[in-house]
Design a protein that fits this description.
By secondary structure, this protein is of the alpha/beta class. It has one domain: Rossmann fold. 26% of the residues lie in helices and 23% in strands. The protein is built from four helices and eleven strands, in the order ααβαβββββββαβββ. The strands form three sheets. Strands 3-2-1-6-9-10-11 form a seven-stranded mixed β-sheet, with helices on both faces. The longest helix is centred in the N-terminal third of the chain and has 18 residues. It is globular. The chain starts with a helix and ends with a strand.
Length: 190
């Protein structure tokens, strides 16, 4: 299937989730994260903030626990600047956030995070294939950002669904993930 077809299919699949099922999947995702990812040597973790209305994977429980139990880790959040480029800003607290034009919470101010300082990236996606290629909303923000990260940075997509879909139109500029985190666990691609 093409990216456009898969995007439509998985957006619908997400919208069809009931609130109870959505909550259960996010709870399982939280447990899968802390069961499968070793945070002891990480210094900076980039994560997206969810659009709950679109039933995106909810990263807030993960963020809260990292802030409480792993004070050596700095969190970084994405922000789309006026030029339409994704920047990374260190997360200081809720007071720093506001919704952008797409309804996504992002830092309105803060200290920029150099991409080369990031050790792990949690990326939103709609679906993925068996090669680690991801389909997002089609803007290419993460593909550009990931190319600026250091080679040792772990690129992990986050999904509420397992998939074995084949993406027919993968582009050469698409940056594949190292792993995918789902409610059933962590699947590595390399």
């Amino acid at each position: 299937m093409t990216k456009a077809e898969l995007r439509k299919l998985y957006l619908q699949k997400r919208q069809n989730l009931g609130e109870v099922n959505y909550h259960q999947l996010n709870l399982a995702l939280y447990h899968a994260f802390f069961t499968n990812i070793d945070l002891s040597f990480l210094k900076t973790v980039h994560t997206f903030l969810p659009i709950r209305e679109k039933h995106e994977p909810d990263t807030w429980m993960i963020i809260d626990r990292i802030r409480r139990e792993f004070p050596h880790i700095r969190l970084s959040l994405p922000k789309i600047n006026a030029a339409g480029v994704m920047e990374n800003i260190y997360f200081e607290g809720l007071h720093q956030l506001e919704k952008n034009k797409w309804g996504i919470e992002e830092p309105r101010h803060g200290v920029p995070t150099p991409a080369e300082k990031i050790d792990l990236v949690l990326m939103p996606l709609l679906c993925y294939d068996v090669e680690g290629n991801r389909i997002g909303y089609g803007k290419g923000y993460y593909d550009i950002f990931l190319k600026a990260c250091k080679p040792t940075c772990k690129k992990i997509g986050v999904s509420l669904f397992d998939t074995t879909e084949i993406i027919d139109d993968v582009d050469p500029h698409d940056v594949p993930m190292d792993a995918i985190l789902t409610p059933t666990g962590l699947r590595s691609f390399k």
